[in-house]
Amino acid sequence: MKPLIEVSELVKEFRSFERAQGVRGALRDLFFREHKTIRAVDRITFEIPAGEMVGYIGPNGAGKSTTIKMLTGILMPTSGLIRSNGFRPFHERTRYTRTIGVVFGQRTQLWWDIAVVESFRLLKNIYNVSAADYDARMKRFDGVLELGRYLNTPVRKLSLGERMRCDVAAALLHNPPILFLDEPTIGLDIVAKDHIREFLKQVNREHGTTMLLTTHDLADIEELCRRLMVIDKGKLLFDGPLEELKRRLWREHTIRFDLKDREQALKLEALASDGLTVERLSDLSLRLRFPRDAYTTAEIIRRAVNSADVLDIAIEEQPIDEVVKQIYSGNLLQEPVP
Question: How many of the other CB atoms lie within 10 Å of CB of 30?
């Protein structure tokens, strides 16, 4: 089956010049400018099949938003190919934008000074949504996002969380097959984030909506995406399952043991050797750390149980925060994906 989104050797470059200091420098800049080229996106290639929810992460300035702007038709690529839902986004922008939804976390697509419901009615007419579909979708939005309480409120009077719920609903009013989300939960409280995540999962499950999500909120990734793409300095460093990324960066396993008494804790501490370390969490609780390429989880558990009276065992999953921290610090793969 042909992918819904195809990106091949995509490049985006910007030209800028260094401003000289002082009056002389300003006068010189009027006549002689030294330009430099900045490559924000550097030959990235990927495909996204219909119905997939993909996380797209990287540090600030990595090229995430530039990629999204090219995929939505806002920016024209310097070179390379984009084919999204059968369109070339920048060249067929008018027709293409009718088939996508976009949410920019720090910008709203709603009209600032009019009631929220009036913005929805304008979008209904822009996208030629039938009255029956409009009523059904508004009812559904209200059921999940609880929009009814502030539909008659001007957008400028909404809190950030209320506005983001409305923006997500507005992006999906015409039921597009593709939704681009750029930091959709930025600045929101836990309750608002949970509402938006649950709504997005429901839309994907019921309508098969394809979603590309950029975010710095790692809970968004864990809740919504099984596939993750990592970009840094314009290059795509990783594209694959989230679990695969954890496996490649997670070089240690950790297991917590709860013990019968302090004497058992001493017995367990005696296991420390050859890369196996023991961390005391409390008098009766210890954590064992070990390199995954040297020991298996079963082997460590067997050693612990044979050495001490163990009351409980917990195999601890490395939080994605730690994985992404390694990515941002440069400790990822040695080479970008081909």
Answer: 7
pLDDT tens digits, one per residue of 10-28: 999 998 766 667 666 666 7
User: pLDDT tens digit string along 32-62?
Assistant: 667 778 899 999 999 999 999 999 988 878 8
Question: Is 237:230 a contact under the CB 8 Å cutoff?
Answer: yes
Yes or no: say if 86 and 4 are a contact pair by the CB < 8 Å rule: no
Give the strand pairing for 285-291 and 277-282. Answer: antiparallel
* Residue in the block written with tokens 């090229």: 63
Q: If we measure between CA atoms, which residue out of 110, 107, 123 comes closest to residue 181?
A: 107
pLDDT value at 126 more than 60 = yes
Domains, the chain, ordered by start: 50-247 (3.40.50.300), 251-316 (3.30.70.920)
Q: Please, what sign has the CA dihedral across residues 85, 90, 92, 98?
A: positive
